[in-house]
Amino acid sequence: MRFIHTADWQLGMTRYFLNGEAQPRYSAARRDVVSGMGTLARDAGAEFVVVAGDVFEDNQLAPRDVSQSLEAMRAIDIPVYLLPGNHDPLDAASVYTSALFTAERPDNVTVLDRAGVHEVRPGLQIVAAPWRSKKPTSDLMSEVLEDLPADGVTRIVVGHGGIDIFEPDKDKPSLIRMAALEAAIERDAVHYIALGDKHSRTQVGSTGRIWYSGSPEVTNYDDIEPDPGHVLVVDIDEDDPRLPVRVEAQHVGRWRFVTLCRTVDSSRDVADLDINLDLMPDKERTVVRMGLNGSLTVTDKAALDACLEKYARLFAALAPWDKQTDIAVIPADGEFDDLGIGGFAAAAVNELVSTARSDGEDADDARAALALLLRLVDKGVA
């Protein structure tokens, strides 16, 4: 038996740092990766798809987002089981009980809206732990696992949330207890546990039967989310009494959110940064968070600004990482001697240089004015 484990689609997600026209393309990519699971499922011979929570970004979505998302699920064309998670819980305002969702839900889509066992076919069950609020007061997974028998039925558990072995706050009531998962596997009551909440593909424990699939399309930078963009194709050999499991990751995401940290202390460093950014592929689907440190002359800082402005137009977003950025700008000796100006203007430039070299409160404004001056005379263009 083969199925696809995925999670954290978060359809309707927005990212504030995307350039204006990049946001619609990103939203479309998130839907496209869902509809594309139909081709993957057919090629793999998958029997169904389980989505382990956070199908939608939240319960308050525009009708267009809901309709387009359901149409993407329809394209999968095999049974799709949706688990409500912390972003889209089964509360009073749930998207899953809305008139629009109910009217347009494709026949191949089932919401796992009951805690406990859902029959897939004789000998195969899905055990679900749906969220009914954003802050559960208990371990929902342990509750559905507690009374499951070891009776020869193949069981896939679908849950959402953080596991206690990964979380620093061990007293958080909603944490999934790893001991309960392993105990259910050990006694042969369940055979695979499909998890959502972590957006990076992660194997949990050493059984090979507990996985976070991660989000199929990236949602955060690579220093936070190191391995996104996958779905998991899961095989359970029902002809073997041990029901061995094999998990294969398929990369389906097309976007990248990259963190880039560099030291820039010279014009050569600025030129190297330009080359590195130029070589990055798929700029329209790439977001770069930039952390820069160093000390530059006004001329080199103007060249850096011009470089960043150029690539900000090419990438889906080029965002400064303020916490990791610290560039000192210090005018070099003779840097403004050949501007071809004299008299009062030259005296004003000298005063700006003196102010820029100081630690006074006007130093940053003076540096900005000098950089603008260089760009106006075409010295700082990258």
From TrEMBL:
UniProt keyword annotations, A-Z: Exonuclease, Hydrolase, Nuclease
Entry keyword Protease: no
Family of this protein: Belongs to the SbcD family.
Domain named Calcineurin-like phosphoesterase: residues: 1-170
CDD domains in the record: MPP_Mre11_N (cd00840)
Protein name listed in UniProt: Nuclease SbcCD subunit D
Statement: the UniProt record of this protein carries the keyword Hydrolase: yes
Database matches in InterPro entries: Calcineurin-like_PHP (IPR004843), DNA_Repair-Maintenance_Comp (IPR050535), Metallo-depent_PP-like (IPR029052), Mre11_N (IPR041796), UCP033093_metalloPase (IPR014577)
Gene source species: Mycolicibacterium moriokaense
UniProt GO molecular function: exonuclease activity
